[in-house]
Each structure stands twice: as structure tokens, then as C-alpha cells.
Amino acid sequence: MAAWPVDPDALRALWRAGGDRPLAIAVSGGGDSLALLALLRLAEPTRPLLALIVDHAIQPGSAHIAAEAAQRAHALGAHPIIRRLTWPGAAAADQASARQGRYRALAEEAKAAGAAVIAIAHTRDDQAETALIKAARSGRWGEGGMRPWSALPVWPEGLGLWAARPLLDVSRAALRAWATDVGLAWHEDPANANEAYARVRARAILSANPALSERLATHAARAACAVGRRNAAAQAWINTVASFDEPQGGVALARLPTDRAGLRGLSVLLGAVAGDPHAAPPEAVARLVQALKHGATAQTLGGAMVRRRVNAFVISRDPGALLGRSGVAPAAPQPLVPGAALVVDARLWLSTQATGYEVAVTPKAAWALRRHGHWIALNAADDVTVQWLTAAHVRHVLGRRDGEAAAPFASCDAGKGVQQALGLLS
Q: 325-333, long-range: CB within 8 Å, 24+ apart, which pairs?
């Protein structure tokens, strides 16, 4: 058999990370994902392996392509699961919405099947292409590349799920050569030749400049490493100054941040309390901190509010974001379906076996239960389980598993010579 393009022990580690649960892999039907599936099955011939196939329902014939991918996945020893996306009304099925829909579908199917880790077949070439696209769009370099291990990039559906990318050091050419040698067949997506897509243009640029592709991939990996270090420092700051015992998912702060790690930590806390899948913009967070240091009693940002309290500060949900204001609709009541978990405001998890409950916002801008017209405090109903997700959201954004110690990171010195490509995608 042809030499493995990746260490099989690195693949076996994915099962160990998921404990006794099955391992899931995102399968598109293309050569990269089917090659990773084959490698995973060779590394662990008997452990349960799920092939999650998302039919984006955008291109003609997508259902047939998904069915063909499922057949190939089954032949390689995986249990295939197909999920077809729907686009109600005039919803735009652009690449950004397709990506979000894909990750939501992967999350939902993985959870339903009991998986905690989803393997994704991103290669070193994907790393370089992503780095070039990000830099061309933002005008800034070094925003961070893909990491071998990270939280699934969707919230709240991705709660407790992790994306593993074991091929980030493997070139697409080496992976496809292995796949050809072992006789794999796959689908070639015609969209990969459509230069209307930025990724296709990036791929063409880097195919013609292999040295540039190598520098970009190396720099992106170092940038990802730097993000990991910043996130670890932010988590350490949070562990030192933050308490998650405030009502309604709020957070108490012993002090305001004084350095970049603290600003990053506060940014993530604000996003988590607001139920925003993204951290608050760092420039806006810095302005908020300065206002509070100069005597402001309260500041709002992105759906969260920071209030001064004796010798401390409290982060809570901005009341206007719940009750409604100009341009913002009030939060709508949502029914609790017996036996089905519900997440509201992207930060409050509820579950019950009883009937007749709904969760709604009181006139005082607090979430509460309501049953048969009567308000009930969240912690006063014995037959409803309630959990605030603020701390879990923070760990998700910072890529930290519950109880996990900070991992050592490699050197993150930035590479050189990448600016020449930034204008080529416009």
C-alpha cells in the first residue's frame, strides 16, 4: 500500500478525544474528504465512524451527488447520514449562508448520533487559500489560520462539539496521490472551476506560485498559533477576575482589563452575555473600558451592558435588546416542547417533560417561565431544567474544553513575503 500521507497515530487520537463516542467526518464526496475517511477507517478498522453529508441544495443534481457520496462512504466502512438544506422563500444561498447552514447541519446530525468530534479534510492548500482570501478582504494580515483542533464554528448549535483538522500539514497533491494509489474514486465539483468564487481564484493564484502558497500556509499556521496563545491568555484573565454567579447569566468582574489579554477576555465575555456568536470588536471594547475608567456608571455594547458596582463591575444583558427599541424587535416568547431542549437568546438552555410552559421576557427585562398566564421564576419550576450558557460560550469562543489546562503552543513568529498576493483577488 502507498505510504500514509499523515501519521496514523494522529488519526487514532481523534477517537480518543471523543471517548467512547463515534467519530464523525464531514464528507462532500470530493477527493479530500473521502481520502480522510479512508485513512480514518484504516487507522481504526472497528470503531464507529459517521460520514455526515450535507446536500446544500444549490446546484442541479446535488441530491444525486450526495447519494453517490453516501454510497462511497458506506463502501469505505462508514455509516452515511445525508442532510439536505432548505432555503425558504427568497433566502440567498450564497457561500456565507451555505457555510453557516452546513456547520449547523453538521452540528445537529453529530449531536443526534452522539458524536463530539467532527473531522474535516482541510489541507495545507486550504490553509493557504483561506489566508489569502482573508487578507485580501480585510486588508490585514495575520488574523489567524485554521487550527488542527477548535470548537465547531457555529453557536449555539456547536456547543460541546469540536472540529479536528488532521490534514493541515498535508498538501492536496500528496493526499490525492495517495487516494489515486489506493484506487479511490470521487466527485469533482464543477464549482471548483468557476472563477466567480474567490476560493477558485485564490487556488489558481497559488497553483501558479507554489513558493508563495507554502509561505502563506506557514504564516497562517503561525497566526493560528498566535490566536491560540491570545485565547489562552484571555481565559487566564477571565479565570482570575470573573465570576459567573450573577442572575440571568450575568458576569461579575473584580476589575477592568489593563492589557491585551484582558481586553480580549472582556470582549469574549460581552459577546457571551449578549448571546452573540462573535466576540465584541476590540476597538469598541477599549473605548468602553476607558469610559468606565473615567467615571461612567454604565456602558452598553453589542447587546450587553456593563454597570459599575461597589469595588466591581457587572456584565448583564442590555434591557433594550430584550424589551425592544428603535430598530430592535422585542424578544418573542417561545414554547417549551416536552422532551426537546430549547436554547433562547443563544445563552439560556431549557428542557422539560411537562406541557404548557413557555419562556418569555418579563417587563423588567428578565427571562422567566410562563404557564397558563402565570409568571414563574426560572429556578422555581421543579419540572423544568435550566442552564445558563455564558461560561460554556466563553470556552467555546476561546477554544477551551471544560476543565482543560492551557496547552503549550509553538513559536508564532510571523513569516514574510505574503503581501504581493493580496491585490490579486479583487
A: 330/361, 331/360, 331/361, 333/358, 333/359, 333/360, 333/361, 333/370
Q: Answer yes or no: are the C-beta atoms of 52 and 24 closer than 8 Å.
A: yes
Taking the CA atoms of residue 102, residue 104, residue 107 and residue 108 in that order, the dihedral angle to the nearest 10 degrees is -110
Contact 118, 151 (CB under 8 A): no
Q: Which amino acid would we find at residue 259? A: D
- Tell whether the model's pLDDT for residue 30 goes beyond 90: yes
Q: Kindly list the distances between the CA atom of residue 423 and the CA atoms of 130, 136, 150, 418, 420, in Å, as whole numbers in the listed order.
A: 15, 6, 29, 11, 7
Q: Give the number of C-alpha atoms closer than 13 A to the C-alpha of residue 411, restricted to the C-beta side.
A: 4
For residue 292, give the 3-state DSSP assignment: helix
Residue 253: other Cβ atoms inside 10 A: 21
Residue 124: count other Cβ atoms within 10 Å of its Cβ: 23
The neighbour count for residue 203, using CB atoms within 10 Å, is 21
As a three-state string, the secondary structure of 319-376 is HHHHHCECCECCCCCEECCCCCCEEECCCEEEEECCCCEEEEECCCCCEEEEECCEEE
Q: Which residues of 76-103 are buried (b: 16+ CB within 10 A; e: fewer)?
A: bbbebbbbebeeeeeeeeeeeebeebbb
**Of 415, 381, 66, nearest in space to 214 by CA:** 415
pLDDT per residue as tens digits for the range 273-293: 999 988 888 899 999 999 999
Rounded-to-integer distance, Cα 258 and Cα 281, Å: 17
H-helix segments, 18-154: 31-43, 62-75, 95-113, 124-138
What pLDDT is recorded for position 417? 35
Q: Categorize the per-residue pLDDT at 413 as very low, low, confident or very high, splitting at 50, 70 and 90.
A: very low
312: CB partners within 8 A, 6+ apart:
252, 253, 254, 255
pTM, rounded to two decimals: 0.88
Beta strand pairing call for 79-84 and 49-55:
parallel
Main-chain phi, psi angles of 139, to 5 degrees: 75, 5
> Quick check: helix, strand or coil at residue 53?
strand
Distance, in Å, from the CA atom of 193 to the CA atom of 195, rounded to the nearest integer, reads 6
Residue with cell 483577488: 425
How many residues are listed for the chain in this entry? 426
Q: Is 418 helix (H, G, I), strand (E, B) or coil?
A: coil
Residues forming beta bridges with residue 38, ordered by sequence position: none
CA 190, 191, 195 angle in degrees (round to 5)?
120
